């Protein structure tokens, strides 16, 4: 095993243990809010937490869980905000903030009793009263608890640190908004399944936040569309369609209000998929003709559910139109079949494009093996004027780039990189910013950004894309570079 491989393996193991620490601490907090320290319900969570700490103590006598901005750190390692730990991650984040706790430092030798006592005192603290940190510190002292130690949450004031924190916070805010939107879609879907009253108010607020983010800088949100969760495919797909639709709407010069309507249409275009049996929706092999008939009915199911929503207004009507039209195709060759031909709405034509693109680049719809982003674009461009509005297709290419964000590319330096930011200049769409992920020798790189517009002294471009690479064949998880 090479040194680089060993280091990578060690980092991945610590990152996994860090996720476990956050999850288990969240469970301890929630359990301690219901039961006191002596209750048997705390035994298993405390044992699990102690075991994870024990694995970390093998290499370090102290383990620090720290909060900086919106991010959680295990020692010096920033923990990635993955979908599977999102809820517990945010719970720990918020509970530490409420108590003004910047770090919790666990030392080797801590036992189950100390873990129970600490989690009980931490969870039961009344954060509505002033000086929560000082009161928690005093309660720990009165209980004779010196392990773990807590450190105060301090504000960073140096200019460089503030600038970095601002950049990191913007990224964290984008991730938080993305995952909050996934959760909101899931809640609406579950309400529909249970035949409960459905309200889109929370979803609308989140989409408005997404509109604000994409109007400031769209590359971070576009990068997050590379996230895939097989268990939550429909929810992730809906959020990705929302983001990609907003990217087109922004280039059309839409107002915030119209962007919000477009985003909501993207978010709930597949609401009717709740009516499709899970064994069909999640089928790992190709659909039969009968199963395709069922799948093709989901736009009708979507319309039926959307018209049941509270407060039918202009926005709800446009969202319904987007849901109905997104599989009709530009030339009406799609489904559902219409008794009378008519022109598709602009909103429907936009959703049609972005829905297909995200479906093609995912591993759940159409092809079970996803298309690399650049090949998906080429395929869609070949259907321009038939399945897709040709003008909107050009706008879409301009929005995501000739090499879309998330494309894996081989450079003329024999390095491999992932397209990280598209070039806003349409004439330089083939020269994005690329994050190095592998050096010329095949070792994992540290992710430095390379601007493909950079020139040498003689006026020639320093870097060229030789060709795009299929990330699936190289078994490279592109998504990890965006979280």
From TrEMBL:
CDD domains: HDc. Residues 212-412 form the HD-GYP domain. This is HD-GYP domain-containing protein. It comes from Candidatus Manganitrophus noduliformans. The lineage of its organism: Bacteria, Pseudomonadati, Nitrospirota, Nitrospiria, Candidatus Troglogloeales.
């Amino acid at each position: 095993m090479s040194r680089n491989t060993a280091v990578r393996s060690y980092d991945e193991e610590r990152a996994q243990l860090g996720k476990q620490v956050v999850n288990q601490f969240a469970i301890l907090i929630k359990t301690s809010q219901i039961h006191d320290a002596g209750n048997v319900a705390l035994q298993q969570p405390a044992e699990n937490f102690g075991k994870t700490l024990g694995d970390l103590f093998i290499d370090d006598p102290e383990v620090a869980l720290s909060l900086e901005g919106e991010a959680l750190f295990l020692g010096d390692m920033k923990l990635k905000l993955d979908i599977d730990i999102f809820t517990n991650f945010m719970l720990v984040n918020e509970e530490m903030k409420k108590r003004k706790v910047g770090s919790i430092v666990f030392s080797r030798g801590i036992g189950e009793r100390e873990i129970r006592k600490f989690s009980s005192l931490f969870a039961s603290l009344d954060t509505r009263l002033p000086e929560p940190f000082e009161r928690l510190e005093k309660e720990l002292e009165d209980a004779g608890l010196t392990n773990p130690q807590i450190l105060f949450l301090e504000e960073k004031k140096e200019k460089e640190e503030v600038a970095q924190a601002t950049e990191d916070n913007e990224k964290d805010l984008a991730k938080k908004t993305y995952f909050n939107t996934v959760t909101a879609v899931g809640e609406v879907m579950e309400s529909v399944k249970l035949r409960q009253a459905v309200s889109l108010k929370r979803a609308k607020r989140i989409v408005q936040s997404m509109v604000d983010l994409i109007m400031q800088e769209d590359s971070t949100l576009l990068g997050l569309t590379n996230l895939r969760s097989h268990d939550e495919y429909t929810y992730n797909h809906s959020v990705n369609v929302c983001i990609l639709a907003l990217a087109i709407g922004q280039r059309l010069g839409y107002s915030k209000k119209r962007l919000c309507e477009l985003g909501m249409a993207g978010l709930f275009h597949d609401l009717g998929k709740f009516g499709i049996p899970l064994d069909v929706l999640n089928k790992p092999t190709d659909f039969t003709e009968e199963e395709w008939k069922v799948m093709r009915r989901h736009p009708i199911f979507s319309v039926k559910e959307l018209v049941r929503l509270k407060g039918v207004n202009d926005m709800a009507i446009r969202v319904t139109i987007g849901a109905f039209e997104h599989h009709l195709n530009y030339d009406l060759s799609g489904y559902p079949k219409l008794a009378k031909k008519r022109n598709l709405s602009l909103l429907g034509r936009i959703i049609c494009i972005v829905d297909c693109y995200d479906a093609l680049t995912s591993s759940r719809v159409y092809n079970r093996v996803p298309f690399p982003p650049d090949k998906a674009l080429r395929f869609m461009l070949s259907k321009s004027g038939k399945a897709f509005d040709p003008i909107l297709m050009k706008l879409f290419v301009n929005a995501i780039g000739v090499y879309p964000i998330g494309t894996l590319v081989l450079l003329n330096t024999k390095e491999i990189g992932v397209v990280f930011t598209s070039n806003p200049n349409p004439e330089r769409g083939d020269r994005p910013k690329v994050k190095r992920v592998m050096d010329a020798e095949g070792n994992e790189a540290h992710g430095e950004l390379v601007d493909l517009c950079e020139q040498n002294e003689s006026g020639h471009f320093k870097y060229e894309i030789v060709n795009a690479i299929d990330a699936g064949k190289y078994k490279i998880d592109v998504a990890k570079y965006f979280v």
